Amino acid sequence: MSIVVRRRLPIGAEPSSEGVHFRVWAPSRRNVEVAIEQFSPVRLASESNGYFSGMVGFAQPGMRYWFRLDDAAHLFPDPASRFQPEGPHGPSQIVSPFWYSWKDDSWPGVSIEGQVLYEMHIGTFTKEGTWNTARELLPELAALGITLLEIMPVADFPGRFGWGYDGVNLFAPTHLYGAPDDFRAFVDRAHAVGLGVVLDVVYNHLGPDGNYLKEFSPAYFTNRYENEWGEPINFDSNDSAGVREFFLSNACYWIEEFHLDGLRLDATQQMFDSSPEHILASITQEARRAAGKRSIVFVGENEPQRAQLARSPGAGGYGLDAIWNDDFHHTTRVALTGRTEAYYSDYCGSPQELISAIKWGFLFQGQYYTWHHQRRGTSALDLAPRTFVNYIQNHDQIANSIDGARLHQVSAFGQYKAITALLLLGPGTPMLFQGQEYGASTPFLYFSDHKKELAALVQQGRTDFLAQFPSIASMRGEFVASAPQDPATFERCKLNHAERRDNKYWVALHQDLLKLRRNDPVFHAQRSDWIHGAVLGDSAFVLRFFGNTHGDRLLLVNLGRDLPLRPAPEPLLAPPDDAQWEMLWCSEYPRYGGSGCPPMRKGPWKIPGHCAVVMQSRNL
């Protein structure tokens, strides 16, 4: 007699009081067996929809298993394996999500409003590169003012190190960082100190090594589209139902079993889908249902800058909460470095660009983009400022240099502090990259540990990609010294947290700005409709925040030399009636390693060079 099983998710190995229930989608196979350690293989029952399933009474959590397909000699790991203790080519392990005792019952989840993101790579965040060691540093991030961690991909991948974007076991947290329960304990600890956690997931391709999905069904992939990194995922053909269920289940799995507060979706422009409901919309809806009463957030990366992603389903959108804003990064980097090569060639870094990026989010919303020889973006004027995740550093942009240099290392000290103020006080959702808060000296390079033949191809591909920068292409010999597959490349990227204690200027700068952002009602409001801006000089501008009953604020940013405002025919500089301006904050305070700020009270103002100043209106 068959046993009726109520599963939490439609695929994978799920323990219960009767044993372990296995279910796998393999529509191209005649039969499937599960081989558990030293026991004889057990044949799974074929369902009419391409699934094979069955209860195995003697199986229990901790045991390792494989699938045998059509009685072949070769064994394969579970496509929905919850853990690969020996990596993608080894056996899968049965995992119980109930063994971990959660302590976050009162955690309500997160919404995008008021968040300060922190992008983190677990393998380099600490010397040991584990969940357990990273967990110990979470209170320091919370004390700084970080509110939401964005963890780079952890789906298991081959080799000893990597960024995670070549994951192949999408349900299995990589064994390199610890066991699944270590990940759970990390999230639990984050919630305990007031931090949310979102996970970066890659639903646009799988890695080139260790991907066995085709063994179960070629329908996982399609040749209808062209993908930058491999075969496109099949989300929209007649035989795509099992594929869609696989990825929808994966999104729900992270939310349910790891109590995550949302997902960051990588390169969504490479998720091709002509279905009536786009897979992105399905993911956001299903995962929110899986979260129950908890509020979760979805952040997307979308190079074409399609505003549709962040509109509600009712408005024809996909329901994401926020989108990475490369435009903000590109214009600020040009402003600080003056370099306009490759994909920076459409940016000037001018005061007006910086004002527009703060006010409107994306700079390109349908204009012609010369680097791509076509229009870029769609109108996003209706999107709330919190929709735009702004940053001046992230994993990609730091690595896209000849030696993984961080922005503060290639720009002037004062200018960088001023741009940091613009980032952290603007109405968008700011994001820092690990170590940025204390001016980390460690680089972040591209690293991946592949087999010899594949490693050579990856290194060549990386070299070819960086060749778009003429300054880098002329120095390829130095790039070879940081070969992605070299363990030394990976080791160089590990943070040295002693710098958090030593670099007190950087820590104080970020801590004070985040406190101002959190406690000042005008900056905290994230209201772009309260903001107007004006260019004051070739390298200077003012943003006026009209704070209604809270009074007004000025953010003066000068990336050039000292600027005397004589004359000052700009109405945004005028104080409200019966009020005067007084200084609230300055990036040149000695506390931040600066040389001091003039009082800027009566008479003509002089905005210090390489400086940001915040003024507040005070009633007379």
- Please report the distance between the alpha carbons of the first and last residues: 85 Å
CATH superfamily of the largest domain: Glycosidases
Strand content: 15-25%
- Note the main sheet: 8 strands, parallel, barrel
Whole-number mean pLDDT: 95
Annotation field: number of helices: 18
Task: Report the principal-axis shape.
Answer: elongated
* Uncertain runs: none
Briefly note the CATH topology name of the largest domain.
TIM Barrel
Q: Order of strands in the sheet with the most strands?
A: 10-11-14-15-16-17-20-21
Please write out the topology.
Blueprint: E1 12-16, E2 19-25, E3 32-36, E4 42-43, E5 45-46, E6 51-56, E7 64-69, E8 75-76, E9 92-93, E10 117-120, H1 122-125, H2 131-135, H3 138-144, E11 148-151, E12 155-156, E13 169-173, H4 180-192, E14 196-201, H5 213-216, H6 241-257, E15 262-265, H7 279-291, E16 297-300, E17 322-324, H8 326-337, H9 351-360, E18 368-369, E19 374-375, E20 388-390, H10 395-399, H11 413-425, E21 429-433, H12 452-466, H13 470-473, H14 476-480, H15 487-492, H16 498-502, H17 504-519, H18 521-524, E22 531-537, E23 540-545, E24 553-558, E25 563-564, E26 579-586, E27 606-607, E28 611-619
Helix pairs in contact: 6-7, 8-9, 11-17
